[in-house]
Design brief:
This protein is an alpha/beta fold and about 675 residues long. The protein has 24 helices and 21 strands.
Amino acid sequence: MKKWKINRSDKDLAEQFCARCDINKLALEVLTSRGYTDFDSIVEYFTTSELSDPFLMKDMDKAVETIENMIDGFHLICVYGDYDCDGITSTAILYNYLESMGANVMYYIPERSEGYGLNADAIRKIAGEGAKLIVTVDNGISAVEEAKLIYELGMKLVVTDHHQPSDELPMAEAVVDPHRADCPCPYKDLAGVGVAFKLCAALDGGNYEIVLEQYADICAIGTIADVVPLTGENRTIVKQGLEYLKNTENQGLCKLFELNSVDKASVSSTDISFRMAPVINASGRFGSPITAVKALLSEDEYDAHAHVSQLIELNAMRKQTEKVIISEIVDHIDKYPQVLDHAALVLWGRNWHPGVIGIVSSKILDLYGKPNLIISIDDDGNARGSARSIHGFDVFDCLHYCAELFEKYGGHECAGGFSLRQENIGALCSKVYEYADRLPKAPVQEICADKLLMPQDITVENVKGLSSLEPFGAQNPSPVFAVVGAVVLSVIPLSQGKHTKIEFEYGSYKGQALFFSLAPERACFKIGDRIDMLVKLDINSFRGTESVSIKVIDHRLSGVKQERYFAAKQCYEKLMRGEDLPSAYVQKIIPGRDELVRVYKYISSAGSTNLDHMFMSLGDDRMNYCKMRICVDIFADKQLVDYKAATMSVSMLEVSSKVDLEDSPTMKKLRSML
């Protein structure tokens, strides 16, 4: 179960704003719940920011002068990118622009096996091709030693990047990075592709008109894919880019729309995030990023089709590989359920594809709500890992705490990467658990709703008005609404039971809601139950008739006291880890006969259930989550039930004789603690 936070909107303020602009009230209520509480901030939100003069970026003038001198002398220039979507789009934009200027230009993107950024072997190879200048995009700010090698080999360097610089900048003709402490540019949160885009504008004398027309579509994709804040200039780039995408003539993008079944005429930031960017990223994970660059640069429809088809095949391989790794992790957790008793997870496997362990880490975070480190070990004993987290558990701080075990590490609060030797994994496990135990409070995964939805809010007009808040992305998420106390009228399986649709009543409103990837038998509710839902709203159009589409992102039975749930769950985990608990508390959590009977009867009547669903039905002043779990453990000890930790599922087993529950190891352990 995830923690819900429902923000309060200011209806009176939204009504005042509504009287002064043409934005509808529901959209304005969302904004007031996000802190836009004066009219000037509302105006600023909806005003498209002007893109600032590219020459305001430190060293941009030097970068332009260096590149123009190389073009004039027809010296070979190498655009050096990165293998993710941001780096790929950056490379395509700058290479294409320089080529259109008549430059002698090539591009190089390291394969994932080479690692991120500039490397010595690649630099020597580029020098061997006769290049005189390397221009980095989406990397280079930390390449201090590699920059020295570039100059030793008789080449020059221009760095364009958007990552945080260290105290020492690399030797270069120009270092263009908005995060430089001495950079006066007004907007700092550009993606790497945004910096490359501004370099193209600077090469055009500072005029954005032509580069917007030529590259806003590609720039929007790279910006959204890199999950930078969609505020200020990023919002401007993406908003204009989405409009250009609807009429793009880029052959690769046209094929990406066609083969991915994305409607070009109504493309949104969500389509890019979940359907287009992953296909481009797949090339850097499973094949070669060069395939994606070629797709974006294709001028021939046949070539574009071939490259994009290959990208889609690679993306399918990526999905299948993720599935296999997650299946292995689930099997491991079922075999060793105690791993879930820790506040953070450390999981590893042999030859897991390093290109997908970051995605797997994100999915494990979503499945179990716990920060985690996912590690792949190769046949030589080298291990590479990715970490993902939630607020309250700082990944970089945790990695720093374990620094002596790593060969290399880096990251920020919610994500990171590292490498180490296989023999250090056991010690890493202990250090991560030690770090997590030092935290004042175990982190809990949270979903935030923008407001409590009222029945009268659910109209086609209101929902259509939410589109004014687009484009959605980092720091401007798609609105989420809470529906509390809806009555389930019917439960309808969809797609042979893969999904569920319900008809429900919510005050004066009667409608339908969709639960994707939820089989009806896995739902916590039945007809007649009152449920709470967190939902996203959209418009469904069928035969010219528009209606509100309600998609559920999380749900629970009404009345759940979530704070008590999380407190009791954390106490259970402490108990399982062997931490000392006051004997008075232990006394309270030892279940009596009536409580054991109550839990057993519930499982027996259900046949099979989920721990969270069982808590929603049984949790009250007498039965907290910790006591309920202990009941299940006692039954599992005596082989009355089968418990699968990975899915938190409990099912009945056949019983042939009477059992003594007092004799269970769990009960004995609790009695011994008194």
